[in-house]
Every structure is written in structure tokens, then in C-alpha cells.
Amino acid sequence: MTKIVGLTGGIGSGKTTVAQMFKALGVPVYNADDEAKALMQSSEILKRELIQLLGVNCYQNEQLNRSFIASKVFADKALLEKINAIVHPKVAAHFEAWHAKQNTPYVIKEVAILFETGSQHLFDFILTVTAPVETRIQRVMDRDQKTKSDVELVIKNQLSEDEKINQSHFVIFNNTILETQRKVQEIHNEILKLIENS
Ligand code: ATP
Q1: Spatial separation of the C-alpha atoms in residues 59 and 40, rounded to whole Å
Q2: Paired sense of beta strands 3-8 and 170-173, if any
Q3: Where would you tag: which of 68, 70, 73, 77 has the fewest CB atoms within 10 A of its CB?
Q4: Assigned CATH class of 1-28+106-198
Q5: Which of 16, 22, 114, 158 to mutate for ligand 1's pocket (most ligand atoms within 8 Å of CB)?
Q6: Residues paired with residue 32 on neighbouring β-strands, in sequence order
Q7: Cβ(74)–Cβ(14) below 8 Å
Q8: Model pLDDT for residues 45-62, shown as the tens digit of each residue
Q9: Best CA proximity match to 111, nearest among 21, 3, 19, 189
């Protein structure tokens, strides 16, 4: 059975950058956030359930109306949990079907909120990517045209880096691309060895 490596880290830590490096080594990568967004667009059942919860305005011209949903969630924090309760099981099932089709020693599942949802038990190994908070803020500001306080707010609502690191099998301190590239290769070799010996 193909093992599952959970790849996580706070906003702007470099999860997607690291995931791409594993992909280049031939490791299949599943991005849970991207797949959730795609499913909210393509799954008729999911659409119906979201409309039931949020009203018809959550889709506009057949497209998910993100700003409408964000404003609803902002005004009602419990709503996010309700949305997650609808979306997460669908993504989990979609991932299971994808995972069953893979035949590599392991796959990577990129999940932004892994510890926060208590889903550690779903993974054979967990890899956390981290970088100094000021670096992360700057990288996200450069990438998304967000303000410093936008990014700080997200960081404030995420689990601390230390808590993630303490619960991980592998950690990448994502400073320079070159160092990270080397570390990815090292971790890839180690995972293969661990699987071979298991
Ligand atoms: P999010 O949580 O917001 O999805 P993420 O953890 O997936 O972010 P990335 O998108 O990989 O992070 O990286 C954030 C930004 O920083 C991107 O624009 C990326 O190109 C850049 N970046 C990532 N790692 C490095 C690095 N080592 N050096 C310079 N820039 C980097």
C-alpha cells in the first residue's frame, strides 16, 4: 500500500514550493485545498449542500462566490465548521480514490490545516515546512498583494510553528531554494529507506 506523507506548514512557509520539488522527484502530489476548490466547482451534490447552507448567492454565474462566503464566515465563525463538515468528507473520499490508483512507494498530501483538524492519524509520516515569520509575511505580501496585517491575522489563527514541528517526523527550514532542494532530496531518500525497511 502506497504510504501517505502529510505536508503542512503555516501560511507562506513554502508548502507548495516543497511539494513541487517532490513532484520533480516523481512523487505524486495531492493538494487538498486545490482539490476542495475544484470539487466545490464540479460536484453537484456538494454544490447543492453548500447552497442549502449558505443560500443561492454562494454561486454566481456557476462560479463559487468566494467573497460572499468569506463575508458570511466573517460574521458567523461557526459557519466555517459547518462548511468544512460538508466539504472535508468529500475531499477525503476523493483523496482515497486518487490514492488507491497510485503505485509509487509514497505520495504527498499537501494540507494547510493538518494538526488543526486532528488528522495526524491519517498519515504515515508528517513533514512540516517552516521559515521565519517575517520571511513568510514578506513572501505572501509579494505573492498575493496582501497587507502585512492581513497575513499576520492568518498567522495568529494558525497553530504555532513549534507545535507543528514537535509533532512532525521531518522538518524543512525553508531559507534558500538551494538548501530546501537538498533537504527535499535527503528526506525523499530517507522516506524510501524507511519504507523499504518497514
Ligand atoms: P500558502 O500557505 O499561502 O498556500 P505555501 O506554504 O504553499 O503558501 P508557497 O506558495 O510555496 O507557500 O511560498 C510562498 C511564496 O514564497 C511563493 O511566492 C514562493 O515562490 C516563495 N518562496 C517559497 N520558498 C522560497 C524560498 N526558499 N526563497 C524565496 N522564495 C520562496
Answers
A1: 10
A2: unpaired
A3: 77
A4: alpha beta
A5: 16
A6: none
A7: no
A8: 999 999 999 999 999 998
A9: 19
